[in-house]
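Notes from the 1:1 (GR / supervisor)

We went over the backlog. Supervisor wanted to see one worked example end to end before approving the batch request, so GR pasted a single chain during the call. The sequence is below; no edits were made to it. Supervisor asked that the structure be written out right there so they could see what the output format looks like.
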Amino acid sequence: MKRSARPSLALLTLGMLGVVLLSALGIWQIERRTWKLALIERVEQRMHAAPVAPPPPSSWPAVTAAGDEYRRVTVLGTFLHADETLVQAVTAEGPGFWVLTPLQLADGTTVLVNRGFVPPDRRDPATRRDGEPQGEVRVTGLLRMSEPKGGFLRSNDPVAGRWYSRDVAAIAATHGLSQVAPFFVDADATPNPGGIPVGGLTIVRFPNNHLIYALTWLALALMLAGALLRIISGRGRAGASEPRWGSRRAAVRRLIGAARKLSRDPGPDARAHIGSA
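Structure output shown during the call:
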């Protein structure tokens, strides 16, 4: 009986650990949901607030996604169209490119501006010269954080001019730009001269499936806990009935033994009874 108890104990231990782990995952998803809802509310407030000036150079080291991304800002400067960069994009307008153009500010610093989307047949700047405003311009849009190292399963190749993400530092280094802000600005839907690039295509969507995940983990924890309780209660009943079953088996073995002995040696009383028949 001791050998059979050890695997059952190990199974129960693993089951209880599973309940704890599944419950912890469910609680973690509830906490993630609370964080996500706060993030969505914060971003919504920033996007619909009045535009403000972007962080000054002295504050650039402190700029973070949590504290600044999706804040509406307004910048005033001159576009350096010769240093524009095309970044591959898939938008509601179809596949094409984001046009990232440096905007030089009056203090000598530079902010990269995602002016908007152009289709593949307009990637050549020569086909959209009328969409390149000259002189000082005002741009309003959303502050976005740099996207280093490239896109999903694709690395940026600055030498070949293939860009899959808006990596501010890499773009600035490629064009030899200095004093560049560590963020870029997604321009709003204010029409550009010539109709392109098309701005205002930023999609702000945060998946929020944490409640479903939490309910799934907690349901699995309850199911596993119920299975463990059934196993434990079943073992208790089996343990209580073993003595009765053992005594019955012993009684049956004694009866069978006595019958076999009697058939081999009936004894005097049995022989007398058989003889009188």
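Supervisor's comment: The first strand starts at residue 72 and ends at 79.
Batch request approved.
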